[in-house]
Write a structure and sequence with these properties.
Length: about 280
């Protein structure tokens, strides 16, 4: 039985729920869906994307503040999403659920260049991801964000958790209705795996990928079953090979190269980038 203080027992929630159901198979479904989730959770902004194992995320809806929207959305969809911990959840086949960024991020995430150079530009001080799996290869991810320093009420998140089965079913029905109507973009997951392969050793590429995702040397050592000193050696090697001197330069090089990769091409994005930016004299 719902507690009397629960938002789920309120007339407002019943109105939101009816609005969501009424929006099924309509183009404004995710706008209605988002308003309901914001009501339950207390978060103030939403980004909803459709995920596939073979394509980059597809934008479904957002109500991001104008001062943050254009710059941050463009960078995210052009390649920064590959470093997003919530995308890692989908790739690891995590179940339906509510995930707080602070709980799932790698150990060095909040000191990483991705966080400093990109995430802080979103203005978010707190973020949760709602993952709704459609099948083994597809999901809907909703990012709920707060730009207010006040913490979100635990009771509100509890309401959201209670509503998850209903929310997941609504997403599945909506995506079933939209099947065949989504325009696919070029896959970038392969480009991420290929990044640096023509210039670095396989192990150096693995270290680079983990650094970009926000792992510390200690975490990388544990994941690759090597020593921290060996990780440091790989760091020195790829810095020299790529002619860079910092993680900030690595992050910038990654985003620039990824943004220029040809459609569905099985190439090293770095090689293509160097061919464009450093033509032979």
């Amino acid at each position: 039985m719902l507690l009397s203080g629960s938002a789920l027992a309120s007339a407002q929630w019943q109105s939101h729920l009816a609005d969501m159901v009424g929006g099924l198979a309509h183009s404004d479904f995710y706008a209605r869906f988002s308003r309901g989730c914001e009501f339950l959770s207390g978060y103030q902004s939403v980004l909803v994307v459709w995920l596939s194992t073979s394509h980059r995320p597809i934008h479904l809806y957002d109500d991001l503040p104008e001062e943050f929207a254009e710059e941050t959305k463009t960078a995210w969809f052009e390649g920064a999403y590959l470093l997003d911990p919530f995308i890692g959840l989908f790739e690891s086949k995590a179940g339906d659920g509510i995930y707080r960024l602070q709980d799932i991020a790698p150990d060095n995430f909040f000191d990483s260049v991705y966080y400093q150079s990109y995430f802080l530009q979103t203005g978010l001080v707190d973020e949760v991801g709602l993952l709704f799996n459609l099948d083994d290869d597809h999901a809907v991810l909703m990012s709920l964000g707060s730009r207010d320093s006040a913490s979100i009420d635990a009771a509100q998140l509890a309401d959201l958790q209670t509503a998850m089965p209903v929310l997941a079913e609504l997403c599945r029905r909506q995506q079933s209705a939209e099947e065949g109507q989504i325009n696919f973009s070029a896959p970038l997951d392969r480009a991420f795996r290929n990044f640096g392969r023509d210039h670095l050793s396989k192990r150096e590429c693995e270290v680079v990928q983990l650094i970009l995702k926000g792992h510390s040397n200690k975490s990388i050592a544990q994941l690759l079953d090597i020593s921290v000193d060996t990780v440091k050696v790989f760091n020195k090697r790829f810095h020299a090979k790529l002619d860079i001197s910092s993680q900030a330069e690595l992050f910038s090089l990654f985003l620039e190269a990824i943004s220029l990769v040809p459609f569905d091409a099985d190439v090293d994005p770095l090689t293509h980038y160097f061919e464009i930016t450093r033509p032979p004299s």
